[in-house]
Amino acid sequence: MARTQGSHSDITGPRVRDAALSLFAQHGYAAVSMRQIAAEVGVQAGALYNYTSDKQSLLFDLLKSHMDQLLASWMAQPEAPVAMQALEQFTRFHIRFHSERPEAVFISYMELRNLTPENFAVIEELRKDYETKLEDILRAGVAQNVFSVREPKVTAMALIAMLTGVNTWFKSDGRLSLEDVEQVYWDMVRKAVSKRTD
Amino acid sequence: MARTQGSHSDITGPRVRDAALSLFAQHGYAAVSMRQIAAEVGVQAGALYNYTSDKQSLLFDLLKSHMDQLLASWMAQPEAPVAMQALEQFTRFHIRFHSERPEAVFISYMELRNLTPENFAVIEELRKDYETKLEDILRAGVAQNVFSVREPKVTAMALIAMLTGVNTWFKSDGRLSLEDVEQVYWDMVRKAVSKRTD
DNA sequence: GTCTATAACCCGATAGAC
DNA sequence: GTCTATCGGGTTATAGAC
């Protein structure tokens, strides 16, 4: 089972992706060179092309797999027929999922404009799919007469923006635990769609 | 009043800034070259250095003047001693101000990582100043016994993220007018901090 | 104030040796 | 599978003519 000199195909691939994710998040796709990624992995630039056809594919694969994971993880959640429970589940799921992978979330928002139009269209559709999950919950709550939401699409966008914003300030070693944060945001979400108010 | 050939100092400066703003917003700071900016303005690349010491200063000046304008515009608003009115004023002001300059808002969020550490610190402090304006309103509302907000700092971040999110989808020729959008968001904000709920 | 030309360097991607 | 070397092009910023 002697290996060719320097042959590490089984581990180098993921390491290329990890290095690209981290560097793209830190400096931005356009500012990161293939040579930088290679240095982080510990190979020469030419070797990267054994794992990706080009730099654009590297970015697209990172964003695509992030969106695929997001949708798959949500679908794997138990179904909640009661809208109020479904909304709480979505709120907590969104915060938890996004806070666990800040770099992937970051580039998924920041690097959309560096995708080719074809690649952008793919990611954009997956994003819309996710937004529709929340929109459907809001519509169900209106139908069940438990939410007051005149504009479900706008409201879904607003709530997702609010929840994703956790990533801009949350530190796991800060004053609030993630559980605390979930509770604070769930209180706001619940009230924002509620029927009664002062 | 004969001009030197090609002399347009009084108008070229703003045109350089406008071109940089537009191109940075479209393609990202790192992806835009000084040659591209020059071409947009209609001069050669070398001429840009009559208006900016380097590319970094161009970015910093755009972000700095955006934050200065934001704070100055907010301070120019009439004072509202009643917290509920102050919050409505902030909500509508934020949406209006940000929707009027989507490119400046966009680069102010996206290009922070391309600032030098010193420049970043300046912008970050201005951003914190603005966030504190909302936080103070929330604390006043709690003191006046009209808001229920356990975490004013977190809530301020959450509300700002939600309001800024308007820029990701709002089109002035869409189904909803900006006035409609303000109302939908103000309903959510008001309820999110309200004392009563279902 | 703008031009042309250039210094000094970096880029993505590929070819061919091992 | 990884290396070195390279192609053809790009970059920021400056120098000096006009």
UniProtKB/TrEMBL annotation, chains A, B:
Coiled-coil zones: none
SUPFAM superfamilies reported in the protein's UniProt record: Homeodomain-like, Tetracyclin repressor-like, C-terminal domain
Keywords: DNA-binding
Residue ranges of DNA binding: 33-52
PROSITE patterns (UniProt xref): HTH_TETR_2 (PS50977)
Ranges of residues in domain HTH tetR-type: 10-70
Keyword ATP-binding among record annotations: no
Molecular functions per Gene Ontology: DNA-binding transcription factor activity; transcription cis-regulatory region binding
Entry protein name: HTH-type transcriptional repressor KstR2
Organism: Roseovarius litorisediminis
